[in-house]
Amino acid sequence: MMNTEESIRIIPSEAFLFFPRDEEAKNSNGVRLLFEGNIKFDEYEMKMIKEFRAYSRKAEVILQPTWTDSAILRFLQANSFKLEKTLNAVKEHSNWRTSRLPPKLTQPIQEFLEKGYLYVHGRDHKFRPIIIFNVHMIEVKTFDIELMIDTLTYFLEYIVNQLLLPGQVENWIILLDLKNMGLATLPLNPLKKLLGYLQHNYRGRLHSMYIVNTPTTIYIPFQMAKKFLEESTVNKIQFIKKQIPEPMFLHVNKEQVEEKYGGTAKNIEKYWPPVFPSKKYFVSEEEQKQLISRESYMYLFENGRLSKYKVNMELACPPLETINSEYPNRDSTSATNPVYVLSTHRADLARPSLKEFGKNDLVNEVLGDGQTTKRDQYPNKNTHLTRMVTRYTTGLETEGGDFKDLMNERLQTRGHEIPKFTYEFLVSPKFGPKNLSPKNKEKKAK
C-alpha cells in the first residue's frame, strides 16, 4: 500500500476542511455513520460501551488496545447493542484480523483489480468514495470466491487507510450493477457471502447502496437474503430498475460518475488504481459553506485540536511566504508556534496526526540532543506547546556558547536554519530557557 504522504495527495484538500456537525454523525434513521475524531457519543452509547467492557471482563475476554470506544461502538450498533452477540462478533473479527491483515498485493489480486469487477470512481458531496461492483461479471461456475475475498480485503483496507479520514470521511457508497441478470444466472451464493463479509468485517462503513439494472425477479431472493443481513444494512439498500441511479445524484455531482451511469465523466477502461475524475464534489453552491477556512485549519492544528485526525501538513503548515501572501493580517505570534516552525522546516517529518507528528519526540529528533523530560517538571504542564518549547531549549544554557549559535548548529547539521523570529520567540520572557529550565525552576522554588 502507498505511504501516508501519497495517501494525503489522493484525498482532496477540501475533505480535510470538512468537519461534520454532531447531528450529521447519524443518518435519518438514527444509525451512526461517524465514530472517530472529536465526534461525541450520546449517553446511551457511552453507557453501552461501559457495559460491554464490563461484560467482556466478566467473560474473561481481554480486549486489545485496538478496541477503542469507537471500534466497540461500531460492533455494538451493528449487533443491536446486544452484549453477547457483540462479544461473539468481536472475537470473530479479532481472529479475522489476525489471519487476514495486513493484506498483500499479490499478482492474482492485482490482475483481479484490473479486470473491473470492483473499482473506485469518484466521491460524493461529503467526499465519500464511490465503489462500483459489477456483479454481472461473475461467472458462477468458474468464479474463484477465495480470490474475491482476498481481493476485497486488500481493496477495502486500501480504501479505509488511504481514502478515508477518521472523524470526517468514514463511509463509502456502493453502486452494484446486476445488468438485468435473471434469477438463473444471478450468483446468489457468492453475492450472499460477499455481502456478509462486508457487514461482518467493515462495520459502520456503508453509507448507501444502489443496486441498478435490477430484474423484477430479484425481490424474491432478496427477501431470503434479508434474513442474513443486519437491519441497518438493509435500510441502506435501494433497488433501481434502470441503469441510472437517480436518487444517488441528490448527493453526488454528475462529474464524479461515468456516463454509463448518468454522469458526465468518461467511461473508464483502466480500473486500478482508483479514479477521481473531477474536483467538483458539491451538488449545490450552498454546500461549499460546510468547509472551514484554511486559516481555521491552521489554527486548529497549532492549538492541538487535530490530534484525533489525519492531518494534511500542506494545509496545516504551508510555507511562510504563502501565509504572508494569503493571510497578511494573520496574528504573527501564531506562526511562531514551535510545532508550526519545526514542521515548516522539517517537511520530511510530516506525519498523519499531531500525536505521531511529535508531541513527545519531534524536537528531540530535530535537535538530536538525547534529552528526556518529565512533563511535571515544568510550568503549564498540560500544554503540549510548553513541553515542546522546554525540550527545544533544555540543556542549552549549560553547554556554553551563544544560544542562537547552538540552535543553528543543531539545525544546520540536518540542513535547516532557525529563523530569526523563532530565536527571538524562544528566548522571550514567556517561553525562554530561563523560565523553563528545571534548574532555574528549583532555584526559584527555594
Order of helices and strands: HHHHHHEEHEHEHHEHHHHHHHHHHH
Largest beta-sheet details = 5 strands, mixed
Mean pLDDT: 74
**What is the spatial order of strands in the main beta sheet?**
1-2-3-4-5
Number of helices: 21
- What distance separates the N and C termini? 56 Å
Q: What shape does the CA trace take?
A: globular
Structural class: alpha/beta
Strand % is: 5-15%
Q: Spans of 5+ residues with little confidence (pLDDT < 50)?
A: 331-404, 410-446
The CATH class of the largest domain: Alpha Beta
Determine the fraction of residues in helical runs and give it as a percent range.
40-55%
Radius of gyration: 26 Å
Can you tell me the CATH superfamily of the largest domain? CRAL-TRIO lipid binding domain
CATH level 3 topology of the largest domain: Phosphatidylinositol Transfer Protein Sec14p
Overall tally of structural domains: 3
